Each structure stands twice: as C-alpha cells, then as structure tokens.
Amino acid sequence: MPKDQVGAVPRSATPTSVVSLRHLRIGWTFIALFGVMGLVLETLHGFKVGAYLDVSNETRRLMWTLAHAHGTLFGVLHLGMAFTLQSAGLASAPARRASAALLAAGVLLPAGFFLAGIQFYSGDPGLGIALVPIGAVCAIYAAAVVALLCRRTTPA
Question: pTM higher than 0.85 for the full model?
C-alpha cells in the first residue's frame, strides 16, 4: 500500500467494515489517551501534589479517577463493538445509531467526570457531572440495541 494510503479505508469497504474500523481507531485511541491520563494521575499521586491529594480535593481525585476508568472502559467497549459489528455483520440503521450512541457515551461520561473535578463546590462535583447521566443513557441504549440485534442475527 502506498505511503499516502496508510490508514485509508479501502474503496471496496462495506458499511459494516467502515463503522467497525472507526470503532477500532476510537477504541485504541481511548485506551492510549486514558492510559496516559492514568500515568498523569499516578504522577500527581507520586509527587504528592496537593491540588490532587489534599483532603479538600478528595472530590477532584474521585472524579478524575472515574474519568480515567470510564474512558479506558469505553476504549475496550469500542473494540468490542468493532468485533461485534464485523463478526455479526451488523450494518442496519439501528446498528449505526447504537454506534453513534456508544461514541457519545464514550465522550460524555469521561468528560463529565473530568469536568466535574476541575471546579467543585464544598465536596460536591462541578456542573460537568450533568453530562454523566446523559452518557449513561447513551451507553445503555447502545448496549440494548446491539444485544437485540445480535439476538436477531442468524449465524451463516
């Protein structure tokens, strides 16, 4: 494959393979990105940075840990979605909506937790926490749709 074609989607790609490839890219990117976030959090802990470890910043520590954990989890879920789409051949409109919902959930949940830890009020999370339930609903929707589609899919 020529150098300028690396990472390009082949012209013969099916809708399923295009969406599956998107989830592979997002999944590995999330794992790398949130892995780095975990290293940063460990570094803050290791150097005993007060803005992260002080008792008055316990909310920040919890919110950022939740952002890291959920971001990494969604990276793995995206890899699972790529595998499921490809192996079950799911290319319907509901599968595409589930794909979009999983992407939204993977952004909203970690972002909500992270933003909630930037500015918080007397131990209560910041306003970013409002994104978390929206992301959770998106994640549940995506999982339910994929589960139903897999039940309807017959093996070849």
Answer: yes
